[in-house]
Amino acid sequence: MPVYQFACKECKKTFTQTMSVAEYEKGKIACPKCKSKKVEQRVAAFFAVTSKKS
Hints:
Layout: E1 3-8, E2 14-18, H1 21-26, E3 39-42
Antiparallel strand pairs: 1-2, 1-3
């Protein structure tokens, strides 16, 4: 599942959240610290975990 990084506009806390694309598209993301829904997505590094060895 993808990992998304967000920043809260209220308390300025940055947090990451692992969720499916369907959950992300619903847009019901809230800050875990202050519960505000005023969050914006930040650019996060992408990495893939596979079972194959390089």
